[in-house]
Amino acid sequence: MSPAERIRNPLLKSKIMSADAAAELIPPGANVGMSGFTGSGYPKQLPAALVKRVKRAQAAGEEFRIGLWTGASIAPELDGVLAEVHGVQIRLPYQSDPTVRKQINSREMQYTEHDVQILVTEQGLADLRGLSPKQRARLIIEKCAHPDYRPALTEYYERALRESPGNTRRT
């Protein structure tokens, strides 16, 4: 039975499209959620279609990178192929691909295993939902750091933005 035959709801059935058509709906900078478990359950055709889209954008001199979110480890045919063409800006919450790991360690790709939404200290509260890593760092310093340490932390943060390659320069 084909996937189209398994879907009975006409509205949902009308949404079936090719992987290439689906890849065209994903804009640069989008956070894309995919999942599965190792080689099972993750989308098999969409990553290859996204790779083609990334390559076309790069050939036109444009940057095309996505945030890639998965619920478990997945196969290299998903995050690995996208990393090989530098198509992933941020990867979370889990990774196991050697190409992804290399780009994380060289700061070509942002990565976090945890996503704190709201941080509360005796100094204050920082609502971090929807913020970039740079915005999060700035807000934590402003709202949650002890006042005695804020100038030093601010100076360190600003110096990192000026001098460090990789993650700190990205929004």
Structural summary, described in words:
The chain is elongated. Helix 7 packs antiparallel against helix 8. The chain folds into 2 domains: 94 residues, no CATH class; 52 residues, no CATH class. The longest helix is centred in the first third of the chain and has 14 residues. The protein is built from 8 helices and 6 strands. It has 171 residues and is α/β, with parallel strands linked by helices.
Summarize the topology.
Blueprint: H1 3-6, H2 10-13, H3 19-24, E1 31-34, H4 46-59, E2 66-70, H5 79-84, E3 88-92, H6 98-105, E4 110-111, E5 118-121, E6 124-127, H7 133-144, H8 150-163
Parallel strand pairs: 1-2, 2-3, 3-4
Antiparallel strand pairs: 5-6
Strand-pairing-aware structural class = alpha/beta
What's the number of extended β-strand segments?
A: 6
The residue fraction in helices comes out at 25-40%
CA(first)-CA(last) distance: 45 Å
User: On the 0-100 scale, what is the average pLDDT?
Assistant: 84
The dominant shape is elongated
In N-to-C order, the SSE pattern is HHHEHEHEHEEEHH
Count of domains? 2
Q: List segments where confidence is low: pLDDT < 50 over at least 5 consecutive residues.
A: none
Largest sheet: 4 strands, parallel
How much of the polypeptide forms β-strand, as a percent range?
A: 5-15%
Number of helical stretches of at least 4 residues? 8
Q: Give the oligomeric state of the chains in this entry, treating copies of one chain as homo and distinct chains as hetero.
A: single chain
Give the strand order of the largest sheet, numbering strands 1, 2, ... along the chain. Answer: 1-2-3-4
Rg to the nearest angstrom? 19 Å
